[in-house]
Known about the structure:
With 117 residues, the chain is mainly α. The protein has helices at 2-22, 27-36, 51-75, 84-87.
Amino acid sequence: MIAFLVTIHVLVSISLIVIVLLQAGKGAEMGATFGTGGSQSLFGVGGGATLLSKLTTGTAVAFMLSSLLLAYLSSKPSTSSIMPATANQNKVAPKQGAPVQAKPPVVPVAPQQAPKK
C-alpha cells in the first residue's frame, strides 16, 4: 500500500513540476504597468482560469493529500519486521530440549553476632 502511494506521490510531484514550468510568467505584466504600455492590470482581474491553472490546482491538491496520507501511514507502528529476533525480544522462548534451570530459593540468614569478651 505504501509503495503504491509513494509511486503516485512521485508521479504527481513530477507532473506538478512540469505543469508549473509550462505556465507563462507573470513578471512581464508588472513592467507593463510602470510605463511600458501594457494591456493587463497589475493586481486586477486577469480573466477566467486557464486549463493550466486548473491542472495546477488539481495536482497541488493531489500532492497535499498524498503527502498527508503518507505521513499518517508512516507514523503508525509497524506490525512486522525483517529481523524477527529483535522485534520480539521479550518473547524469546528457550530452545526445544534445553534444560530449564531454576534459581534456588532465597533463604533468609540470621545475622551473626560478634563474639563477647
